[in-house]
Amino acid sequence: MTRLPAASAVVFALVALACKREGAAATVTPGTPAQKAAAPAQAPTLGTAEQRARLFAEIWDKTARREAFSPVKNQRLALDVRAAMETFAPELLAARTDVELFYALVKVSNARKDRHLRVRPVDGGLVVPGWQERAEAPLRFATDYGDGAAYGVFVADLDEGFFARGQFQRVPRRGDRVIAVDGRPLAEYVAAVEPYYAYSTRESFWWQVSAQLGARSGLLPPSRYSERVTYGLMAEDGATYEVSLPWLSPATIRWSGPGRPEYPDMRLEFATETYEFYRHTGGRKVVLLRWFGFKKMLVADVQRLMAHAEKEGLLGHALVVDATGSRGGSMGVYALQRMTGRPFKGPLGNIRLSDVVEPFVVKVRAEAAAGGPTDGGVVESDDGGARLLAWLEGSVLPDLAAGRPYSDTVPFKLAHLPADSDGVVKPAPVHFEGPLVCFFGPGGGSHLDQFAATIVDNDLGHTIGMPTGGYSNTWEWSEVLTLPGSRRPLVEFMWSIGHTIRPNGEILEGNPAQVAERVPLTAANYSHYHGLLLERAYAWLDAREGRSKR
Description:
The chain is α+β, with helices and mostly antiparallel strands and 550 residues long. A seven-stranded mixed beta sheet has the order 10-11-12-13-20-21-25, sandwiched between helices. A hairpin with a 6-residue loop joins β22 (476-482) and β23 (489-496).
């Protein structure tokens, strides 16, 4: 890992840069009265150039000590974390308003290329008007991944009623290509907004670009939005045109596309917070779950699934899980124990040993006393966190005292197994016995990354689509940054303090499991994409059955 230079060297180099930008002397001698005189006048709440230079040095120092860097991700993205963070230090020093300082810190954070990590406003901190507000244009977009060298963006849905009521030279159609945004070529626009996005893979970044292109939110500074947004579009016949659209309340927009994916020959039987359950109508022994995420109701919803499947005689059916729209959460191992009849090795994890380990253990101790660790309200373990706390107190704290850089690698968060386990879990007594097929895509990650990697690395079933977003880690640590030399809070800042280790032994972050059958989303297949994935699933199941009969 890159070594941190002396903090004073970073501070005074940045102060000198700030002074030079203000037309002051380029050379600033540390500790002299000239240093204060040369610093440009600032609003008191933002501090001086030196204070903000010290803030940057503090962020990098804590990042260098705490962050569980992913070498595989950094290699794939050609990322030098320290150099990338330093790129935005001048913006931090030059900030003149709360908003400018906030988004400079966002860029510094995002330079690490970690989808999990966020910068958030805090009470009494930097004021960012409209940070939690959202408006939308009456167009939605998606990414065309068909060309691996250069992804494109196209119109995926629209409010047809809105366009019918307006006066437009040409009405957008699904599949029309985006060639410009507010007069800037798409490539130029994407390059300009990229620093505001947190992402861990290139495919995940482009998924977000399309998802956010029709929205006005706190993702970008308010100055990047006008009262209207203008899209330059190219129709199928090659004609180019522009549409200028207002920002609307999301509640007023009526999207014309289907509300859910269409699965040919599948009938929706019931839905829960965790999934929708479909059954084949044409005689195939196949059931399908449209999976939403690994959230609070997962255990109860999976229990309902298994009771229904057992009662209806469906346990021998092939199980198709469409997780292309899934979010993260916890307890994926619990679900997978019921989706397969084979033992499998689950994800593993470790923790980087740094100054935040002791307060982290205090936090986990309090969570265990209150009923167990949770993630967004989702219970993370089946024993209330007892195994995790025992490991932290009995192994991690001694390793910290001994000066080790990382803890041992153990089953992920010890959610289902003890620290001395080999990581292998057995299927539940009642489980699906037929083949497993899963659809994945880059829109989700975190615990979904672990779910996908567990299936791929253990060869538990056939995977189709595209890799997940690749942003799983074990834990994050958040704290409120304050202006050096004062008590003024600024923002909440996060660090990733542990690795998720795939069952195959590789670091997961920036390294999602590859699907067995890649089917990229494109403008041409968008309208029937899920049906296409299902056709591929049927083909694989038919071929598998044919092989088994020979």
